[in-house]
Amino acid sequence: MANTATPVQTSTTTWYIDPAHSMAEFKVKHMMIANVKGQFPKVSGALFLDESDLANSRAEASIEAASIHTRDEQRDAHLKSADFFDVEKFPTLHFKSKSISVVRDGELAVEGDLTIRGVTRNVRFSVEGPTPPAKDPWGNTRVAISATTKINRKDFGLTWNAALETGGILIGDEVTITLDVEFVKAQLARS
């Protein structure tokens, strides 16, 4: 008996991160009393969006470690050093999704491998979006997402710290990561 099943057609589209409208940010406790925030403005990557079933979608992103910016040049230099990101040896942070699931309308859970300083760990992002597609004034189609996760920096080899005279430590272990990303739909080549 011949198999007459029709293959399922997927409607996967490719969307590239627009670095001019995207940002990776983090916050961590400083001296156990306040949050210090920083940014990585140099983000690149792509979303392979299955519009018929978001669970079949996947995403990848890379961040240029040396682009770190915390509004303090001395702190930025220390964060780029071997004490922290060691940007000479590990120039990029990388994320590659392994699964995407719909939590509720407009909210996704995205799990995947996050690599920092050459150490890869599984993380789960809570994602708002993607937004409905919108056309910009130049005819490009865009969508956006906002994603958040928390990691323990020591899990990625970011172990440097200093004890405070009054007790406690200079830098907290828990880091909140927030990604605000805008994607541009890849244009189909015209022949």
Number of helices: 1
- Mean pLDDT across every amino acid position: 87
What letter string, H or E per element, gives the SSE order?
Answer: EEEEEHEEEEEE
Question: Which percent band covers the strand fraction?
Answer: over 45%
Termini separation comes to: 41 Å
Strand order of the largest sheet: 1-4-5-6-7-8-10-11
Q: How many strand units?
A: 11
SS class? mainly beta
Radius of gyration: 19 Å
The residue ranges in which pLDDT falls below 50 over 5 or more consecutive positions are none
The gist of it:
The protein has 191 residues and is mainly beta. 4% of the residues lie in helices and 51% in strands.
Can you describe this structure?
By secondary structure, this protein is mainly β. The chain is 4% helix and 51% strand. The protein contains one helix and eleven strands, in the order βββββαββββββ. The protein has one helix at 73-80; strands at residues 12-17, 23-30, 34-40, 43-50, 58-64, 92-104, 107-116, 119-128, 134-135, 141-152, 171-185. It has an eight-stranded antiparallel beta barrel with strand order 1-4-5-6-7-8-10-11. A hairpin with a 5-residue loop joins strand 9 (134-135) and strand 10 (141-152). It is elongated. The protein starts with 11 loop residues before the first strand and ends in a 6-residue tail after the last strand. The model has no long low-confidence stretch (mean pLDDT 87).
